Amino acid sequence: MSTLKDTPAVRAAGARKTRAVRPAGRDGSRLTRQQSRAGWWLLAPALLHSTFFLAVPAVAAVFLSFTNYDFSGAWQMIGAENYVELVQDTRFQAALRNTIVYTIVVVPLSMVLALLIALGLNQKIRGLGFFRTVYYLPVVTATVAVASVWLWIYHPSAGLANAVGSLFGLARSEWLNDPATALPALMAVGIWQGLGAKMIVYLAALQGVSKELLEAANLDGANRWQVFRNVVWPALGPAHYFVLITAIVQTFQVFDLVFVMTKGGPVNSTTVLTFDIYNNAFEGLRLGYASAETVIMLVLIAAFIYLGGRSQRKDQDA
Q1: For a FRET experiment, which of 67, 106, 282, 293 has its CA 20 to 30 Å from that of 122?
Q2: Tell me, what's the pLDDT at 5?
Q3: What is the C-alpha separation between 99 and 303, in angstroms, rounded?
Q4: For residue 23, is the peptide bond before it cis, meaning its omega torsion is within 30 degrees of 0?
Q5: How far apart are the first and last CA of the chain?
């Protein structure tokens, strides 16, 4: 007795289905290849930019770090002498210390403040568009203009910072002229200027949180903290990672604020790696030495990104 799947009608239908599927499979494979080629063509400009303006300079910096190149025609390989000299260079040590401290302070504080602002702007309040614009405005303002405004704010006699502090009985401070307060003053400017970009990322992530999960948590009787901790916070994982990585890179690249506001002073208290690299390369004309500093900075950025990504993964798995 033949079963249903062994009948001639079923076998014929199966054959027709197979014949119908095979061309579709070939068409699908051809479509996949076309999409892949189109994707590579779209990526080509970015890949070319990354190759010629990122990869090639990085390789050149590594090579030059083992030379005594100084913009003149004559140069020679000197091995690891630049790195040995860097270890003994007190200015480089100060720049390295200031850069690490700046990053460790600015990155977490700016992330926390940006998230708090995004949580506030994610509510239904009046003038929402105005507040979003105001918070984002420093991001699109030239850093030189921002630094000029804050130079007036930190002015010892006519600045707004001391005027506000005097209302609370605080003594006047030199701010940028005092080694104890110069770097924290720059940190405050860096945090303020970078809040808008981080806030926008967090705001977009908050608006993408599943409404169904939020409603389910509310129906289960969860309070605001429980909803944030168990629903909102896990959903912000990709946003945390993106903001963390971009913030680390930006803090290591801080230059304009230092150049305009302090010139690395007083007593190298605000000298950072990028500013020291600039001085060695374009004022001291020691491009090989500056390249060695650049290599060390790239290694530090990679290490911070790795540690930040690892801590982020642990937080998501917890």
Answers
A1: 106
A2: 43
A3: 14
A4: no
A5: 59
